[in-house]
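Try this one yourself first.
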């Protein structure tokens, strides 16, 4: 077993975990009767014997310009190639073919955050026209062509969808950065992807106020330049065409309002470019163990097939449904399950601009009632928050969900039951979908019409996905053993990323080296995909995902790398050392706490703490804002000088710090503990008692 530089030396494997087995909830009969997958024969069709050909069932949901010759080509293992020889266009599949069949059908409903603003209904015919015009602009004004990368920093607006699809029409690889990320974070991703065009927006509403988003474009361009990448055009969509709502000036010759330029392309048609299935559709950056973000590179044919198939069978999308996913378009969930999956199936997808509890915790249910939403998709963090602020509110509204999804973090059984009984009124099938940016679509979930739900477990592997749990030595951890280990996927699948953009070695290192025994093998059986999550499997084959085993903190479903957080803190000149650790939070799952030590001659105090917070907001964004910054005289360290994150994580969570006698400086631990815990108690910031699995995670954090 090769020890990768990015995988920890010790993991949660072999930690015995005991949890109460939850009861099954059978899928509601009314749901089953109409479900896309309600015949158990589908399980047989996707059995291992039928791999990889089973996935042609997903590919057949698309319209191909040329059929593929080979379903799965493993000759460059583990850089898998799906549907080789096939040609298609993703935009054509998501727009043109539905516009031709049903031009007046609503493709996108946009719900502004301010309740009195007008909701927009965009038909497939309108969407096709808008996409054509913007594609003409991208091609003729911005000079973009197939294979070029372009960075998008767009909020939750229909223009984000238009932009993505216009890129897809031309074969331009879009790299959408989450709108809540800072200008600097966007700039780093511009540089890494080699984009010379940035597409952004003037502003958007969030929690009741309009923020200046355009200012981030200026920061992003400056940061990209510092990293050696010039941006020659910034295209700025205006939330209200003709009305600029940002105080940040436009830069002459570089910045252009889309609504001013697009007139020239009115009525133009751009033929969808016929592309290889193995060409790339987009990059989606995500965090890992090192500071440099990883651009997960997704294919056109495999990815689109996978999200179309999983949207059909797991979200149970029919063309007549009104489907609402509350994730952000800037994350993979938004790409796969707001835009590409639902639109490939020709359904109506809802995009909501703002935060779910604005102006109150009844907002989602009012939207659902008004629009007739019947499929609902959100994260445990939003569910926990809505449950806290308005636990009985859903009963006041007359909506009916046939199915609901939860994604992004483990969901506590108690929270799951509220989602089921209150939000779903006991009538909706829930899918707890476990997957990752890298995987394109779902890895683990129950098939809602065929497999019963079990609160807190995502379910078995998805159709055609064969998970396994290995211990550190590569031995299989048997199901029902109550032992956790590293969950891996034994086989490739069409949604898996092609590589890490520009870092093929990192792709191999992080995801494949750990359990590969023969690097020259061209047989997929030799290349289990290492997910980076701890998990266990019960007797029934259902998986319970415990969380990341690497140096990643999952805040409200957003993956933040400790290295990125620490590098951000180190941009404060007075900071000598920094360490980021998770604290358990009842709403957001985990939050970040920063520990910093200062260079000689500098004094701790609230001002210094604010500087660290500001640096993190500048380098990453407000989502990474630490709950607390603790300035300590020194960090607990090993004799080799490594910061013991598990010790400070234990302090922050009021957990036992364990044996510290082997540290280089054990004497400082107690001082830190007293300082931090006293301050927390004074603030009323005492955590509840941790569960066994939470305790295991905290006490293993940083793994040393
Ligand atoms: C990590 C991936 C999946 C798209 C959104 C997040 C955690 C994801 C679940 C779930 C328990 C989950 C895992 C995974 N995770 N879904 N249903 N139950 N944990 O994508 O930012 O790439 O994060 O999120 O730890 O590895 P991401």
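Now uncover the answer:
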């Amino acid at each position: 077993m090769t020890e990768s530089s990015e995988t920890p030396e010790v993991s949660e494997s072999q930690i015995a975990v005991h949890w109460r087995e939850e009861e099954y909830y059978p899928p509601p009969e009314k749901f089953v009767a109409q479900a896309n997958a309600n015949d158990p024969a589908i399980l047989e069709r996707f059995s291992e014997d039928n791999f990889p050909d089973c996935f042609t069932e997903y590919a057949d949901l698309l319209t191909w310009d040329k059929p593929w010759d080979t379903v799965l080509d493993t000759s460059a293992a583990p850089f898998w190639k799906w549907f080789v020889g096939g040609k298609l266009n993703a935009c054509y599949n998501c727009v043109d073919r539905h516009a031709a069949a049903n031009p007046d059908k609503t493709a996108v409903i946009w719900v502004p955050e301010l309740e009195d603003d007008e909701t927009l209904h965009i038909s497939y015919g309108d969407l096709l026209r808008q996409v054509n015009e913007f594609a003409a602009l991208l091609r003729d004004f911005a000079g973009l062509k197939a294979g070029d990368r372009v960075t998008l920093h767009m909020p939750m607006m229909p223009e984000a969808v238009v932009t993505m699809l216009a890129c897809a029409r031309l074969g331009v690889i879009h790299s959408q950065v989450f709108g809540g990320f800072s200008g600097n974070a966007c700039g780093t991703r511009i540089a890494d992807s080699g984009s010379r065009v940035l597409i952004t927006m003037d502003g958007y509403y969030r929690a009741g106020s309009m923020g200046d988003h355009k200012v981030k474009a200026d920061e992003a361009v400056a940061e990209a330049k510092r990293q050696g990448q010039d941006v020659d055009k910034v295209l700025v969509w205006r939330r209200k065409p003709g009305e600029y709502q940002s105080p940040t000036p436009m830069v002459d010759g570089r910045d252009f309002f889309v609504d001013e330029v697009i007139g020239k392309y009115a009525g133009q048609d751009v033929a969808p470019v016929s592309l290889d299935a193995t060409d790339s559709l987009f990059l989606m950056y995500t965090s890992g163990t090192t500071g440099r973000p990883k651009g997960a590179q997704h294919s056109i044919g495999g990815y689109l097939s996978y999200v179309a198939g999983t949207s059909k069978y797991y979200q149970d999308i029919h063309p007549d449904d009104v489907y609402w996913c509350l994730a952000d378009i800037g994350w993979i969930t938004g790409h796969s399950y707001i835009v590409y999956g639902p639109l490939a199936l020709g359904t109506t997808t809802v995009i909501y601009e703002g935060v779910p509890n604005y102006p109150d915790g009844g907002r989602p249910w009012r939207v659902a009632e008004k629009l007739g939403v019947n499929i609902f998709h959100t994260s445990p963090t939003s569910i926990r928050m809505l449950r806290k602020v308005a636990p009985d509110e859903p009963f006041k509204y007359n909506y009916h969900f046939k199915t609901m999804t939860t994604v992004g973090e483990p969901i506590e059984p108690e929270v799951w039951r509220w989602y089921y009984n209150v939000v779903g009124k006991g009538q909706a099938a829930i899918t707890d979908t476990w997957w990752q940016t890298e995987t394109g679509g779902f890895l683990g979930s129950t098939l809602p019409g065929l497999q019963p739900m079990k609160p807190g477990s995502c379910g078995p592997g998805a159709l055609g996905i064969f998970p396994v749990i290995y211990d550190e030595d590569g031995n299989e951890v048997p199901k029902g053993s109550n032992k956790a280990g590293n969950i891996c996927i034994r086989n490739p699948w069409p949604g898996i990323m092609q590589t890490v953009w520009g870092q093929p070695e990192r792709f191999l290192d992080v995801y494949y080296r750990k359990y590969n025994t023969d690097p020259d093998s061209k047989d997929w059986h030799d290349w289990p995909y290492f997910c980076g999550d701890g998990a266990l499997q019960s007797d029934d084959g259902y998986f319970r995902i415990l969380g990341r085993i690497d140096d990643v903190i999952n805040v409200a479903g957003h993956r933040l790398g400790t290295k990125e957080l620490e590098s951000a803190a180190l941009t404060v000149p007075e900071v000598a050392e920094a360490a980021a650790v998770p604290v358990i939070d009842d709403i957001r799952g985990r939050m970040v706490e920063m520990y910093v030590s200062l260079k000689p001659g500098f004094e701790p105090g609230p001002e210094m703490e604010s500087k660290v917070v500001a640096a993190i907001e500048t380098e990453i964004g407000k989502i990474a804002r630490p709950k607390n910054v603790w300035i300590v005289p020194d960090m607990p360290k090993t004799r080799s000088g490594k910061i013991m994150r598990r010790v400070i994580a234990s302090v922050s969570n009021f957990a036992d710090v364990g044996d510290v006698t082997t540290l280089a400086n054990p004497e400082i631990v107690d001082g830190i503990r007293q300082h931090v815990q006293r301050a927390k108690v004074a603030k009323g910031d005492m955590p509840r008692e941790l569960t066994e699995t939470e305790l295991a995670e905290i006490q293993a954090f940083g793994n040393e």
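Discussion: The pocket of WT7 is lined by residues 286, 332-333, 407-410, 432-437, 458, 531-533, 545, 547-548, 554, 557, 559 (CB under 6 Å). The longest strand covers residues 575-585.
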